[in-house]
Structure formats: C-alpha cells, structure tokens
Amino acid sequence: MSTDALKGNRTFDIDYDNDVFLKDGKPFTYMSGEIHYFRIPRIYWEDRLKKVQAAGFNAISTYVEWSLHEPSPSVYHFTAEADIVEFIRIAERLGLLVILRPGPYICAERDLGGYPAWLLTVNPKMQFRTSDPSHTFFVSRWFKMLWGQLQPMLYGNGGPVIMVQVENEYGSYPVHDLNYLLWLRDLYRSYVGNAAVLFTTDGPDTQFVNRGKIPGVLSTIDFGPVSTSPAKLFEPLRKIQPKGPLVNSEFYVGWLTYWGEEFSRSSIPPILKTMKDMIALNISFNCYMIHGGTNFGFTSGSGSSKHYQADITSYDYDAPISEAGDLTDKYFAIKDLIAGEKNTSNNKNEEKETPKGDYGEVQLKPLISLLKSPIGRDPVYTLFPITMEAIAERYGFIAYTTTIPYETQDPSVLQVNVRDRAQVLINEVEVSVLQYTVINETPLPSDVTKGKKLTILVENMGRRNYNLLSDCTKGIISNATLDGKLLQNWSIVGYPLTFDNISRLDKYARGSIMSPSVNFPDPSPAFPAFYTGTLNLPEDEPAQDTFLDMTGWGKGVVFINNHNMGRYWHIGPQRTLYIPKIYLLDYPHKNRIMILELHFTAPNQTVRFISKPLLSLKDKYDEPKVLSKSASRSKWSLSSLRSKSQKDVEK
C-alpha cells in the first residue's frame, strides 16, 4: 500500500456515545508530558524527548509561542530554536504523539502570555483575547503563517498531532466574549479540519467550564493531585458536557515560583495516587510540566495578584526532568508507576545526571555605568513621560531624565507610577527605588535642588501572563510630580540589551572599536554598571553545562558570550543561572562574561561556575556571607519595597 493511502486511513476522533477517543478506529487513551521547545536549547530537544518517552508516556504537549516566531511585525522565525516542525518530527521519530496548544494566548509564565510585545506599540489599548478587530487582524495573519508550517504535522495529514487546543483557560475570566471564541474556533477549523481533535482547557469549576466551553469543541479540565477520586473533579464538566472522553489537560506535577518566594516543591505520593486513579478510570492526562526548562533572556512573565509578582528565570517547576535535563526521584517514581500500570518492562539503566562543569571563580572588573554606556537608543524628547512601547521598545530598561526646574521642599517628595521597578537617581547616583503596586512615591535627599538631573530608570521585569492582559505597557505610566508639581521636558532612552547591543559593548570593552565620547574601562562606575570577565575552560575536556552562582550580587542580568542568560536577584529563591554548554566556547577560546548589576557587587567582585543549581533559599554551596561595603552604605532598604510574603520568606 502506498504511503499516501496509509495517510488517508489515519483518523483521530471522538466516540461520544462510548466516551472514548478513537485512534484509527480503536479506543485510545493518552498519557502525555508537557515540554516546551522554546525553553530548551535545540541541541537538547532529542535528549529531553527521549527521556519523556523512556518514562512510558505515549504523547507530549507543547504551547506555540507567537512572540518567538514573529519577533517583529511580519518578520517570521521558524529555524534554529524556533524550528517547531523539527521538534514535532523528533517526537514522531520517537513514537510520541503530539498535542499542540497554539493559543494565541498561552499563559505559560511567559511575557504577555506568548503574545508579541510589538502589538502594544501598534495599539497600546488592544483588547487581547477578544473580538477587538485590531486583535483578530493580527491573529488571522499569524495563523495563516503558522498553519502553513503545521498542517502537514496533523494526524489526519500523516503527522503525529492528534489534538489542538483552542485558546487557554478562557473560562477563568469574567469577561466572556462568545463571538471571539466562535470566531477563533472557525479559524482553527479552517486549518485543522478533521485532521485532529479541537479542545479547550479550563479549571474544574462549573463557571470556568461554562465560560470556556465552545460549541462543537471538546471541553477538558486541569487540576493537580487530589486526595479524593479524580472522578469528582469532572462532575462540573459532566453537567455541561455529559458525554465524551475525560481529559486532565494540565495535571500539575510541580508548580511555578515567583521572585521573593520559596522555591515551589510538590510531594511525590499524592502525584502517584492521582495518576494511578486517572489511569484506572481511563482518563487521558498531560503532566504539566514533565520538563520545564529555562526562561532565557527577558522571556519570563509575571503573575496577577494584589502585588506585582515576576516569574524567576528558571522554569525548573520541580518537574520530573530537571531544568538541566537530569532525572529526579519524581521521574523514576512516575516511570515505575506507568510501567506497573501498563505491565511493561522498566529499563532502569538511564543516566540520572549528565556531567556538569565546576569551573570555579571568575574575577570580574568594572566596565562602564549603564547610563554612560554607548549602547542606548537615540533619545526621544517629550513634554510628559510616555511608555516603553510608545517609543517602540519592548524589553530591558528605559531611562527618563529631566532637570529639576524649581527649588524643592525639604523633604522633597517624588511621586510617579512605574511598571515594573525603577531606580531613582540624582546626577546619576541612586537615592531610592520604586516598584509597581508596592511603592509609587519616595522622599528625596535634602541636597536635591533646582538644576540637578533627575533620572528614573525603569526595568521591565516581565509583562503579565495571566488574566486578560490589560495594563501591560511598561515604563512610566503616569505623569511624575515633585512636591505636587508636574515634571516636564523629558529625555527618554531605551536600553533593550539585545545580542547586538551587548556584542557592541563587548567590542568597546576589548578595544576592538573605540568610543569617541566614553573612556573604557571606568574603574569606579556608578550603579547600574556593567562588569566583565573571562572564563577559560579546561584544555582536556569539551564544554559542559554549568550553573553560574550569583550569590552576593544584588540584582541584574547575565550575558555569556553576549547571549542573555536571564535575570538574577538576591531576594531569591534562585541564585544560580543555568548555562547550557551550547553557549560556552571550548579551550583555548575565552568565554566572555558580562553582568549588568543594578545595586551592589559581591565583596571581591567574583562569580562562580558550579555543578549544582541553587534554586531554593535553603540550598547551600559554600556561599559568601558578607555583602560588599557599597551594599551596606545603600540609602534605601529593599525590604521596605516588598510585599509581606516576600519579607516573610527572607526571615
């Protein structure tokens, strides 16, 4: 029989009368693991997928991140780390089926829930996740490009994709735009047809399921380990969808972590109990996450609560396969359970941990203050402050500078609303810190007088990834006042810290290009400041994955060979950044380390490459215990800027 004929006989659909999926006409239940290609270096895709397959799963699930694939309007990226088709093909070669979740909203603890931030430049008032025409226009354009790549991957077309999710937990929000859901369903159908099953996912609550349900689309729910029977969690769903297969589309085997919290961990026995019960009830499920990976660069999002909460760089998620791809006790427990339930052999010969590099300390040296560095964008001049997106910036930092035009009071009070966190500087010396939803006003020192330069340097720490994504613009989001009087005439400079930005700064540091206005290096730059150093790997071995320990440093961003590895922050819990070997150069090449530090350095201005992650506030690894003198002299207290929960963690 020809290949085309075989493909023509492939079907994946639903037998509603018998509450089952039918794969090629036969009842089918899937056990899936969630794994995101956009959080994993491409060289590790096959390794991670093999580990999922070896655990006994017959499918994987992944979101599709729009912002990765269309980083600028009409500029599309489907190669290298964005080659989603190759990721799917690797899964197929390993015998894994695929569940796709293209959103366009994906949450996923990613900046703007996976939407590209340039949409906020096009229309800062865009109503995401609705039938707002400015929103649906770009979704339609994006899907046309995306599905041109993905249609051959659908099961009915010969590929491994059996399920395609429409939107994501739409029922969690009180705004219910049914017209949008119907429009999105029809858009999906125009590309998917009958080649895969469309489904929705919502929490196990009657209101959630009812608001998220789309006529003609299978409804599923999500929940973590429970002490009761999982069947009870499906009772709200059965009131709305009496027939059809039961699916837990996000079975939480770990959980996310915000800066300032303790690292989230999940107990293994409740996970095993609920998994065992779901298997016995023929419930299909997807373990979220089976492998979390890393939010490299500025891709982390933020939560939605009373206080702004930014996601940490690591997306380890306490998953069965660790951030660095190592196999945990949770992994082996789940593997044993699946083998026992499926009555299959259990190969226990896997290597639990891959070798890691313990490369030791690297001495860093000051390079230049951020505000004096020649990598800022050209200034934009405005009467009043405008947002980052209004000047076509998306990530990184943005500096607002004005001259104080009048004599000030004593004490003088600055009031301004920022997203997300701002350093207040007088003549480029820090005097205070502001933070979104925590503090929007601050007294200034008595020597702040007329004619001095006021700079408000705002850090975008990650746009909201949850809820309706309103109010996600960054920078200064209101007028600024000093002693109740409006401040005007601002110079605005963006510092996006792209690969090209940092590469250029590195060339200045090495003297390969000269700056006409800045002398490199500056031996005592004002914070925020760049620090640089080099790492030579051992002569007799290739590069290995490693972890960069930032204990003792304040808050900032790390670049390895000009690649953005992500943010660090001394409030924790994360103190190490995962450095995959793909970003390191073998001997005799020098690895260039560059750090943007916002507040203070470690006492000896060193960092250390170690072989173990420090993701918990309780983790130990011969850490320094003393902060630098510059930290102790600081005129402000971080603890005063944090929510109560963050203070409690630090105690």
UniProtKB/TrEMBL annotation:
Domain named Beta-galactosidase 1-like first all-beta: residues: 385-496
Every Glycoside hydrolase 35 catalytic domain range: 21-338
The entry's keywords: Glycoprotein, Glycosidase, Hydrolase, Signal
Active site: E169, E250
A molecular function (GO) term: beta-galactosidase activity
All residue ranges annotated as the Beta-galactosidase galactose-binding domain in the record: 528-584
EC category: hydrolase
Pfam families to which the protein is assigned, alphabetical: BetaGal_ABD_1, BetaGal_gal-bd, Glyco_hydro_35
Any single biological process term in GO: carbohydrate metabolic process
Reactions listed under catalytic activity: Hydrolysis of terminal non-reducing beta-D-galactose residues in beta-D-galactosides
Known EC number: 3.2.1.23
Low complexity bias: start-end ranges: 627-643
Region (Disordered): 627-651
Family: Belongs to the glycosyl hydrolase 35 family.
Name listed for the protein in its UniProt record: Beta-galactosidase
